[in-house]
Amino acid sequence: MRYHSTRGQAPVLDFEGAMLAGLARDGGLYLPQAVPQMTRDDIAALQGLPYEEAALRVMRPFTDLPETRLAEMIAAAYAGFGHAARAPLVQIAPDGWLLELFHGPTLAFKDFAMQLIGQLFQDVMRRRGERITIVGATSGDTGSAAIEAFRGLEGVECFILYPHGRVSEVQRRQMTTPSEGNVHALAVDGDFDDCQAAVKAMFNDHAFRDRVGLTAVNSINWARVLAQVVYYFTAAAALGAPGRAIGFTVPTGNFGDILAGDVARRMGLPIDRLVVATNRNDILHRTLTTGAHRKEGVVPTASPSMDIEVSSNFERALFMAYDGDASAIAQLMDELARDGGFTVSQGALQALRETFASGRASEEETAETIRRVFADTGEVLCPHTAVGVKVASEQPHRGPMVTLATAHPAKFPDAVEAATGLRPALPERMADLYLRSERVTEVANDVGALKSLILERLP
Ligand SMILES: Cc1ncc(COP(=O)(O)O)c(C=O)c1O
Ligand SMILES: N[C@@H](CCOP(=O)(O)O)C(=O)O
């Protein structure tokens, strides 16, 4: 399988190369040149399989890895999950389902990809004998999942930039309490978009990138998206695909999770509605509604992991909507950086609308959804999931609609308690999280200073 960049000026790479590169050298994102297909029989055969076996069948055609080696890594990645199904479905209405993606070690959907990437990186490093430096940006969940996956690993230094004061206390403590010296939590004086821009600036400084062996664990890395494709297949097969089409609603920020749904559909999965659900930071909903993609400034919400305006993976969706016209994408991304926005062409907007529906939830609607679902079903939603459930409830859709439950409610206890009166408890294994001592470095939103700090900390 070969991977090319959305901006057309970077080398075409194999799976391992694209994974290690993270961001392409022209600033673009890697995508497979062709999407492997799953037939109706292939999809039907997934019903009832262990998650790990389904993951192998879905991901294998995208990689160049020997089947047994990939199977071992998948097994190791999901062994620590707290649910035998890994991604169980829970029914909350006659046609309404939650896909619980929070049974991994850090209680958010990020563990699905991050635990696997941890295995994949170790495999490459063992074979090549190289060291790597991970620099990631987080609005809370990617960072904790990355730190969990890479803490204590020989040959890896992991730096995570998070927006100071804008993540939940549980998210912060998950990043700041691990004591291993190779993981570094950096609280940046800015928002998530500032953190992500700093990471991309480091990748675009090729001398720095090559000097430190920089690699990415955000969903700019294709391997992240790929691992997230799997649960669309397992959920849809469990609900009767390919015999019937399934809808998915996805709480969206950096657009990685919903893009994985689009990839699943392009592979042949019958998804009849794929819905982008945004909080008040609704640039994606506005874009799909009007065609104007324009930043307005991020506002903090009760679903902080989705407080994002520069949504990295939207670039991949645009590339597909512009029929692979890399120079058009490079131009749009220049406009975004220079003018704070761009207008999508009519043809591309139509293609985007044929692929994605969208909706938004206000803060009041999010809280009311947490309250109502708890009262009606006893299910406790995290605020991100509640955004999804609210938007899903407004869709003109017949048949099963699955909302991705992206985080455990205990990661956001204040919002949940305010809506339900109930303070969700952390799982037993994390019960002492509030007692552990924290280790964090506060840093200015300054790429030069961040690069110096990283160089100082490297062994
Ligand atoms: C809990 C939670 N829900 C939803 C999202 C949005 O996912 P994505 O950034 O892939 O759109 C995130 C952050 O990525 C998250 O942490
Ligand atoms: N919500 C994310 C933001 C980064 O998204 P990613 O999927 O690109 O890593 C977070 O929790 O950090």
TrEMBL record:
Which top EC class is given? lyase
Q: In which pathway does it act?
A: Amino-acid biosynthesis; L-threonine biosynthesis; L-threonine from L-aspartate: step 5/5
- Return any one Pfam family short name: THR4_C
Question: What positions are modified (N6-(pyridoxal phosphate)lysine)?
Answer: 110
Top-level taxon of the source organism: Bacteria
UniProt domain Threonine synthase N-terminal: residue ranges:
2-78
Which GO terms fall under molecular function for this chain's record? pyridoxal phosphate binding; threonine synthase activity
One GO biological-process annotation of the entry reads: threonine biosynthetic process
Q: Does the keyword Lyase apply?
A: yes
PANTHER family in the record: THREONINE SYNTHASE FAMILY MEMBER, THREONINE SYNTHASE-LIKE 2
What family does this chain come from, according to its entry? Belongs to the threonine synthase family.
The name on file for this protein is Threonine synthase
Per the UniProt record, the lineage of the source organism begins with: Bacteria, Pseudomonadati, Pseudomonadota, Alphaproteobacteria, Rhodobacterales
